[in-house]
Amino acid sequence: MADGTTAVVWDEALLSYDMGDHPLNPVRVELTIALARELGVLDRPGVSMVTPVPADDAALTRIHRPDYLEAVRLAPRDPFFRGWGLNTPDNPVFDHMHEASAWICGATIAAAEAVWSGAATRAVNVAGGLHHAMAARASGFCVYNDPAVAIARLLDQGAERIAYVDIDVHHGDGVQAAFYDDPRVLTISLHESPLTLFPGTGYPDETGGPGAEGTAVNIALPPATSDAGWLRAFHAIVPSVVRAFQPQLLFTQCGADSHRLDPLADLRLSVDGQRAAYIALRELADELCDGKWVATGGGGYALVEVVPRAWTHLLAVATGDPLDPLTPTPPTWRKLAAQRRPGSVVPETLTDGTPPPVERWQPGTTPDPVDKAILATRMEVFPLFGLDPHDGRD
């Protein structure tokens, strides 16, 4: 094992996943890499920049149906194309859609293989995290499901226990669906309640199929949940379940759309709360997986105000010491951001000025809506791991 090393997977070809006038704009990835580079994160000792190659059909068809791949290839040639979840407002057809989507999957495979092979301890693909795509349907801005494709590759290479933790504001439904009946993959998703947000799944009673009971864990949080409640929910459930599962590798989807400025959802996290989540995830990987951690991006639609700062914190946590939240954003980066997105409010520091409080979940008290969500998940899942849902100890 190459102790303490990190692979950052990057190529400008990953910016070709571009749906045009659409919330999922690749400028967020461009500005993330630019900010991390300006702050020296990508030049740290032990960081290797890895150039990916597109995923081939053999890799993609581990998750997606061959006829769906063919539809993705054909759709840009037919202006009247219908079906497969494509050519909709959420999933518009764009030129070279198959190739762009295969690049994203190839980059996440490269990250996963770098960690599994021992070439790196940790790996990041900020352009990845397209967690909604189904076996034969585009969904939620996602054409191919790169986390599922990469996890399938590791299973084929002999992995026996992979924990997938999804902190995007939306339920990680596509990854859950891909492995719902597979006891080798634990999927955990913290998300805004399906009662109020797409995709309408991710209830606590979705716990895994026959033979895989307990390997799907869903924490459905009420709208307006802020740093304190979100982190309380995370620590009340995620570490206990992941420890019980004993994974060989931790795979995370780190969508930044849980932020209070995100235009498409209604959680209320700060960049500082998101940074705290990344640190907690790395600590879990260090504790349980000899540090083996694969991280992707995901959602995030405050393209200048939030995503580049959040994912620069993610890259910093993955490559070494976390960045000081008070770190200024470099003037050259601020100029680039203003050029790319005129009219945006360009942040001057890496903090929102709100250090996240640490609150421990306590059973037996009068619960607020977040505590009710915590208990609902614990009641469904903890007994399946032999854990006491009412025990407030870590």
TrEMBL record:
Record's keyword annotation contains Kinase: no
Extent of the signal sequence: none
Q: Where is this region: Disordered?
A: 339-366
* UniProt pathway annotation: Ketone degradation; acetoin degradation
On whether Ubl conjugation is a keyword of this UniProt record, the answer is no
Q: Which Gene3D superfamilies match?
A: Histone deacetylase domain (3.40.800.20)
Print the keywords alphabetically: Acetoin catabolism
Span of domain Histone deacetylase:
22-316
Q: Per UniProt, what is one Pfam family of this protein?
A: Hist_deacetyl
Alphabetical list of PANTHER family matching this protein: HISTONE DEACETYLASE HDAC1 (PTHR10625:SF10), HISTONE DEACETYLASE HDAC1-RELATED (PTHR10625)
Describe the family membership recorded for this protein in Swiss-Prot or TrEMBL.
Belongs to the histone deacetylase family.
Q: Write down what this protein is called.
A: Acetoin utilization protein AcuC
The organism named in the record is: Winogradskya humida
